[in-house]
Amino acid sequence: MKSFKFLAMSIMIGSLMAFAAACGNGESTNTNTNEGQTTEAGSEEKQLQGEVAIDGSSTVGPIMEAVSEEFSKEYPDVKAPVGISGSGGGFKRFVVGETDISNASRPIKDEEAAQAKENGIEYTEFKVAFDGLSVVVNKDNDWVDQLTIEDLKTMWTGEAKKWSDINPEWPNEPIKYFSPGTDSGTYDYFNEVVLEEEPMVKDATLSEDDNVLVKGVANDKNAIGFFGYAYYLENKDTLKVVPIVNSNGEAVEPTNETIENGTYEPLSRPLFVYVNNASVKEKEQVYEYVKFALENAGDLAEEVGYVRLPQEEYDKAIETLESLK
């Protein structure tokens, strides 16, 4: 009997221990699962999704395409294709709320700002790099070694029709013109600084695609064109850049140094992105994209052929972005 009681007691104690162990294992299992869920949930919070709508300048395009490519490595579920419709074309979409970011190689115009205000679009301007608008001729052009702003105006308004109209020693051949299209900020900048708002020569070939301009100049010995510095660098083996006489009477070629220190003037200029404030506040992917762009714009701008801003300007821009959030 005593043995039976002992056996019964042993069974009961064993059962209790097994139950306790089972509970303990259950808690451990639940804790591990919860930790896993927490980790998983945390990773899901970091895994951004959605789209960033970007359009605008073909000049700024290479910088932002590089930003999108690098950004996608960290956030593969965010789509951020870069449209190239020119600064003006980009602003047309931006001021009605169709895009989150508008790339521009010129500041927003008063009438564009007014349209944005009418449509309730509040925005912030950020500088991302410097550019030197580059005047190029055919590689076989052996007569042009420099041009003044007045020379450029005489040519591009059609007052001079042949190279010999600029210099009697130059060929008696018609000048062929290749220019960014009228929606381009580069066109606007050239029109303001060089042409002083006078009409451009009517027989110029216009295109929003700078590669069309590169090919046009490269294929015609009597051609001249202009576009952003990066496109010249990318095609310098097939094009000849023209030094431009600055206000000190010095013929200066666009380089990283002359663009940054301002001696390549008046054709040096800043490049911009305009950001919809509401998009920054309401779309996490837009905020992260713009932050990433500002943190990396200097390196990526140089990588694609432009000139970085001083670091303090990027730091200040990031502070401005944080204040929008």
From TrEMBL:
Signal peptide: 1-20
Pfam families: PBP_like_2
Predominant subcellular localization, coarse grouping: membrane
Membrane disposition: Lipid-anchor
UniProt-annotated location(s): Cell membrane
Keywords of this entry: Cell membrane, Lipoprotein, Membrane, Palmitate, Phosphate transport, Signal, Transport
Positions of the PBP domain: 43-294
InterPro entries tied to this protein: PBP_domain (IPR024370), Phos-bd (IPR011862), Phosphate_ABC_transporter (IPR050811)
Role of this protein: Involved in the system for phosphate transport across the cytoplasmic membrane. Part of the ABC transporter complex PstSACB involved in phosphate import.
Subunit comment: The complex is composed of two ATP-binding proteins (PstB), two transmembrane proteins (PstC and PstA) and a solute-binding protein (PstS).
Family affiliation: Belongs to the PstS family.
Protein name listed in UniProt: Phosphate-binding protein
